Amino acid sequence: MSRGKKLLGLLVAVGLSVGMSVTPVLAETTSILDAVAEEKLTDEETTEDFAEDTQYYPARSTNLNCGNVKIQKVSDHELSIYGLTQCHKKCSKVFLSLFLERKVNGSYSTYKVFEYTAKNVTSLEKGLNILVPSGTYYRVRGYHAASNDGLKESASTLTSGIMIK
Question: For this UniProt entry, which residues form the secretion signal (predicted)?
């Protein structure tokens, strides 16, 4: 047998033995927090970093047109909330209440409340950035109302919960 064939045979034998001794390992990039978050996900939550809800008042309304709330993850310990009360016309008093809710032990409860009023306006909107503890879901509940000439109309909004981790 020639020297080249012997060398080729030796290289093939070494290549096969090394190739068969390597065991491929598939590693996941999810952390323990991801696994915990997925287990707690219900129809009240979303996997997105943003949630929004808009409610339109009935077509025959005199004052209130709609209410809108939004929540968005800014960082591991910060979120942004936004609320809007929109009227059909200038109203003597417009209300906007934002209830930041936090999920603890499987249910949501109010974590912080922000209440605003304005006089003689057609809309009222507020946006806030809030530092929060991480590791749970947060959502925003909104109360929107408008009054004029003794008539007060109101609507409620509620976002899905987003995970802050």
Answer: 1-27
At 59, which amino acid appears? Answer: A
CA distances (Å), 63 to each of 56, 69, 93, 117, in order? 12, 19, 10, 15
Residues 14, 165: Cα–Cα separation, whole Å: 48
In a domain, 152, yes or no: yes
In a 3-state reduction of DSSP, which class is residue 11? Answer: helix
Domains held by the chain: number = 1
Paired residues of 84 in beta bridges: 68, 125
For 105-129, how does the pLDDT look when each residue is reduced to its tens digit (9 = 90+)?
999 999 999 999 999 999 999 999 9
What is the rounded CA–CA span in Å between residue 140 and residue 157? 8
pTM for this prediction? 0.76
